[in-house]
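stage 2 :: seqdesign
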């Protein structure tokens, strides 16, 4: 009887251990003993990268703000010049280039306006008179007289004037983009600045070739 009681005790202990193991597996991963429960817990913490991305997007400095506030009206003037070319230019390549400029810069204007709104910074006003720190002017911007002369020109005269002005305009934007890449803090803004530099430099080279044949 002693041996039988010993065996019974061992069997009872083994059964209890088995139940304990089963309970542990069930708690960790469900009835199939998998680690699904742990995976689900990890999945629940997934929003962390989104939070980090939001924080990165919110990071900016004065250079980022100044770049957006200056590049918006700079782009707007380029779009205005491009729209004039649609009606007044006689050269086919110039018309195509003007359409390309407008298509590229319109969305960039909206992007930069969105950044300024997100940062709680003022959008540039049409006159720029009430924008602090903007009285030093922007490189490559045409004066009101320049724009009136462009508006009054047509055909071949417009073509040459447009290209000359747009080359100067693009070179100003390139300078601003380089400054942003050096002094800015927001990676998205710096990436846009790099895109502007690369694309407008290519367009400047194209316009130089157009000038050579006009």
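stage 2 :: out
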């Amino acid at each position: 009887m002693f041996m039988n009681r010993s065996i019974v005790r061992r069997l009872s202990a083994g059964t209890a251990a088995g139940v304990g193991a089963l309970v542990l597996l069930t708690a960790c991963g469900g009835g199939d003993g998998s680690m699904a429960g742990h995976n689900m817990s990890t999945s629940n913490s997934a929003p962390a990268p989104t939070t980090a991305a939001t924080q990165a997007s919110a990071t900016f400095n004065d250079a980022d703000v100044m770049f957006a506030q200056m590049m918006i009206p700079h782009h707007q003037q380029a779009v205005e010049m491009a729209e004039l070319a649609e009606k007044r230019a006689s050269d086919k390549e110039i018309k195509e280039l003007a359409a390309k400029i407008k298509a590229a810069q319109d969305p960039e204007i909206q992007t930069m306006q969105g950044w300024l709104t997100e940062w709680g910074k003022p959008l540039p006003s049409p006159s720029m008179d009430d924008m602090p720190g903007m009285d030093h002017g922007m490189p490559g911007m045409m004066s009101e007289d320049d724009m009136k002369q462009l508006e009054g020109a047509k055909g071949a005269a417009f073509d040459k004037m447009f290209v000359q002005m747009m080359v100067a305009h693009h070179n100003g934007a390139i300078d601003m983009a380089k400054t942003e890449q050096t002094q800015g803090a927001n990676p998205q803004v710096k990436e846009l600045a790099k895109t502007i530099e690369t694309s407008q430099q290519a367009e400047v080279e194209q316009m130089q070739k157009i000038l050579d044949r006009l």
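stage 3 :: structure notes
- The chain has two domains: 2-45, 61-213.
- The two ends are 116 Å apart (CA to CA).
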